[in-house]
Design goal:
Two copies of one chain form a homodimer. The first copy, chain A, is mostly helical. Chain A is built from nine helices and no strands. The structure holds a DNA duplex.
DNA sequence: CCTACCGATCGGTAGG
DNA sequence: CCTACCGATCGGTAGG
């Protein structure tokens, strides 16, 4: 099946791009991971950049869907609950496919300028969801007043760090990481409730 | 002066490595930034990797010195004060020379395996200082109990994110960033004092 | 998916 | 610091 082969290519490429970077990975490296000749890759893809583009777009889709779902499930709830859902969703996307997610996080700058601009907009829109929530929570008194752009950048990069060091099957389960990162993020922002 | 030219090379290279990555930057790109021929660079450096190596080492020196100074200045003080000093020092290193710091943060993986292992050790030792402080603070009751490796990873990558988006002369001063990031980090870990 | 191949660019050297 | 140059590798194409 054509789709399946494309996926294999993207999976192998994700893992190589993650380890060596896009520029540091050759078309022949990718082909070697599939046990085919370098030139044979072009039976399936139009260019090296197309592979990166496909990976980045699919990852962007996943982050957006996770945020949609988190916001849907917690709409109307207090800001700290909505934050928890957003964090949990984001961490889930990272740990479910670290290769893909880390390429999204780190290698999107290697895209050609037009494509870079396009996912740049999607990244901004995604980050804006976090800023908005932080602004709302600050105004509602649920959060300690914070600068929304700075606090969003702080949180998101803290979470995205997972893409750098997480290994499935390692000593830390995805669940344990999510639990701790939810706690840290919650405490960083949420107002203490004094009983 | 030989030292000065080396510095110019490293500064130009830092900025290019930051924007395009080490693998995505050619020796001729660096030379162009100095208005000399690509081959002329080799009158000053032995290899492209030597330039990366020099940048990474100097950045590592600065992070370690900042942590030494922070620990010296707050030794014997409560854990939350020591954390503040460590955060402030780390952020200061990042904002004082973003180019160099971001190469340290992101491009050290491009070093040859022997050198990568050597700064890997230094990075581990640096991260261990944070883990140790978090463990001590957790035990002393100054911090909400946290998993030291996870919490250290969370904090450090949150701070290191500055290397990605900070531009000197931008809308956010280094001082304002440091203040907000100190607050966020403090709240993420510190036990509330109930009056 | 393969073989054969291409022009461009890479990091780096020789010799001034 | 320059000119002239090198072998290796790069992304990609032609033609099966």
């Amino acid at each position: 099946m054509v789709e399946t082969r494309r996926r294999q290519i993207e999976d192998v490429a994700s893992s190589l791009f993650r380890d060596q970077g896009y520029a540091g990975t050759s078309v022949r490296d990718i082909a070697r991971g599939l046990a085919i000749q370098g030139a044979s890759l072009y039976a399936h893809v139009a260019s090296k950049e197309d592979v990166l583009w496909a990976i980045v777009r699919r990852a962007a889709d996943r982050f957006e869907r996770a945020a949609d779902e988190a916001e849907r499930a917690t709409s109307g709830r207090p800001a700290d609950e909505r934050l928890e859902a957003l964090v949990r969703g984001h961490v889930g996307v990272l740990t479910d496919d670290v290769g893909q997610a880390s390429v999204f996080v780190r290698e999107w700058r290697s895209l050609s300028s037009e494509r870079r601009a396009r996912i740049g907009e999607r990244r901004d829109a995604y980050e804006n969801r976090w800023r908005r929530l932080i602004a709302e929570g600050s105004q509602a008194g649920a959060f300690v007043p914070a600068d929304p752009p700075l606090a969003a950048a702080y949180l998101l990069t803290a979470l995205n760090g997972i893409a750098t060091w997480y290994r499935p099957g390692g000593p830390l389960s995805a669940r344990a990481i999510a639990a701790e990162f939810v706690n840290l993020s919650h405490r960083a922002l949420a107002q203490e409730r004094h009983p």
